Amino acid sequence: MTDHHPSLVETERAMREHVESLGLDFEAAHAVSSIYRAANAVRSYIWNELLRPYDLSWTGWVVLWVVWIFDGMETRHAAEAAAISKATLTGVARTLESRGWLEKRGRTDDRRLVELYLTAEGKKLMEELYPKFNAIETKVVGRLSGQDTKGMTKSLREIVTTIEETGLPG
């Protein structure tokens, strides 16, 4: 067992050595592993650099962002857009509401449905944080050329489209 966080190369080598007899598609495995590791690295970096000082979780950030860009959203759609369960959304929304950033409103046409909206303070927070968030986005792709960034984006969108069209969970 190692006592350090293995690098991407070390992980791929260990995986190949461990499962090569199974006849796997290593290129696909490396691609998906790289997506996962990159997403987690970016998420962790953004949380440490930007969100932690606001005591804002990644999930809280995503909920605020989704509600902000759509100028409000029904709770089940907000949970789906944030890729979380409705139960998780309930707790996150409660926290964001207690901080004065989010408010819940019952729908007049169907009282069973609840919509989420940012408060004036929530909108102010997003207008403060989003430019900083985007600066980090710019930084983390900074070693890529503009063409490489566009190619990566196109490829990642193809992966998402494949999942959406094939009905795979997600």
Can you describe this structure?
The chain is mostly helical and 170 residues long. The chain has a domain at 1-54. 66% of the residues lie in helices and 7% in strands. The chain is built from seven helices and three strands, in the order H-H-H-E-H-H-E-E-H-H. It has helices spanning 8-19, 26-51, 58-69, 75-81, 86-98, 120-140, 146-166; strands spanning 73-74, 102-106, 114-118. The mean pLDDT is 90. It holds the Pfam family MarR. Keywords: DNA-binding, Transcription, Transcription regulation. Residues 28-165 form the HTH marR-type domain. InterPro entries: HTH_MarR-typ, MarR/SlyA-like, Tscrpt_reg_MarR-type_CS, WH-like_DNA-bd_sf, WH_DNA-bd_sf. This is MarR family winged helix-turn-helix transcriptional regulator.
Which helices and strands, and how do they pair?
Blueprint: H1 8-19, H2 26-51, H3 58-69, E1 73-74, H4 75-81, H5 86-98, E2 102-106, E3 114-118, H6 120-140, H7 146-166
Antiparallel strand pairs: 1-3, 2-3
Helix pairs in contact: 3-5, 4-5
